[in-house]
């Protein structure tokens, strides 16, 4: 019976990770909240790496056509200098530029940041900050398409992604908000945000592979981890599809309300 309860807890964590990873409400913050409510404490980074990998796979599957187009187009521009593919090459370049701030921040400060800021209080304040940011950009409708971006745009959005290293600050929220704030159209903001997510997540998986191999709880938690992985994979897919519809309709304001409500409740009760 205890095993079944443990499995159900990890399935719930998978649902939470999958549902919140694509949307601007912070998956890491929600995992901290749910783990506290369930009386759970993760040892090491194995669980985080596995569930993030599941979310990564789901998101890459959804954006597979865009990924293929950018890779093929970027490579063809390098080889032939055909201007028809220049926009793809520049988009790839801006993804690299936008990835650097968070990559550098993760290598230098991630452990320290999580040591200092991993608390329910921090999550509450971070959610309120996210809510304010979403409120401020609620009526913005940018004009920049994929081919209109600049290095400055990439740096600013990349810095926003670096800020999201703080638990409770949503990565997708920070990058989508920054993308809209610099003038991107909704669909370009969504695409650029999740193109930035892919390399930073792949890097995290590579750097964290040793944590999975050396995890002393690996054998004991194999089934719960597998259940959480599968659940996260499935739920991320449907959550991402749902969020794409929200972005297309420009209804980010509802996430602002959600962040305000959850942040205030956390301050009151936890």
UniProtKB/TrEMBL annotation:
One term under GO cellular component? plasma membrane
Give the GO molecular function terms.
undecaprenyl-diphosphatase activity
> Which membrane topology term applies here?
Multi-pass membrane protein
Key word Manganese present in the record?
no
Cell location: Cell membrane
Q: Which InterPro entries match?
A: UppP (IPR003824)
Q: What class of enzyme is it?
A: hydrolase
Any idea of its EC number? Answer: 3.6.1.27
Which reactions are catalysed by this chain?
A: di-trans,octa-cis-undecaprenyl diphosphate + H2O = di-trans,octa-cis-undecaprenyl phosphate + phosphate + H(+)
Q: Which UniProt keywords apply?
A: Antibiotic resistance, Cell membrane, Cell shape, Cell wall biogenesis/degradation, Hydrolase, Membrane, Peptidoglycan synthesis, Transmembrane, Transmembrane helix
A GO biological process of this protein is: regulation of cell shape
Residue stretches spanning the membrane: 45-63, 84-104, 116-137, 194-213, 219-240, 252-269
Other comments on record: Bacitracin is thought to be involved in the inhibition of peptidoglycan synthesis by sequestering undecaprenyl diphosphate, thereby reducing the pool of lipid carrier available.
Family per record? Belongs to the UppP family.
Task: Supply the PANTHER family for this chain.
Answer: UNDECAPRENYL-DIPHOSPHATASE (PTHR30622)
Protein name per Swiss-Prot or TrEMBL: Undecaprenyl-diphosphatase
């Amino acid at each position: 019976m205890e095993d079944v309860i443990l499995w159900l807890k990890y399935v719930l964590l998978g649902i939470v990770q999958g549902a919140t990873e694509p949307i601007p409400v912070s998956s890491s913050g929600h995992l901290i909240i749910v783990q506290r409510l369930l009386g759970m404490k993760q040892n090491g980074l194995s669980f985080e790496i596995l569930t993030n990998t599941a979310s990564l796979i789901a998101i890459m599957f959804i954006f597979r056509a865009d990924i293929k187009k950018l890779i093929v187009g970027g490579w063809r521009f390098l080889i032939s200098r055909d201007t028809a593919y220049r926009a793809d090459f520049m988009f790839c370049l801006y993804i690299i530029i936008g990835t650097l701030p968070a990559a550098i921040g993760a290598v230098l400060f991630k452990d320290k940041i999580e040591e200092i800021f991993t608390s329910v209080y921090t999550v509450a304040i971070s959610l309120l900050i996210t809510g304010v940011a979403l409120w401020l950009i609620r009526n913005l409708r940018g004009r920049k398409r994929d081919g209109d971006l600049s290095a400055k745009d990439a740096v600013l959005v990349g810095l926003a992604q670096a800020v999201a290293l703080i638990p409770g600050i949503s990565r997708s929220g920070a990058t989508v908000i920054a993308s809209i704030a610099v003038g991107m159209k909704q669909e370009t903001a969504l695409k650029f945000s999740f193109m930035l997510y892919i390399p930073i997540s792949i890097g995290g998986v590579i750097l964290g592979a040793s944590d999975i191999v050396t995890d002393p709880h690996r054998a004991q938690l194999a089934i719960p981890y597998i259940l959480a992985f599968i659940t996260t994979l499935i739920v991320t897919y449907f959550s991402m599809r749902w969020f794409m519809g929200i972005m297309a309709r420009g209804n980010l304001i509802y996430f602002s309300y959600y962040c305000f409500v959850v942040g205030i409740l956390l301050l009151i009760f936890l």
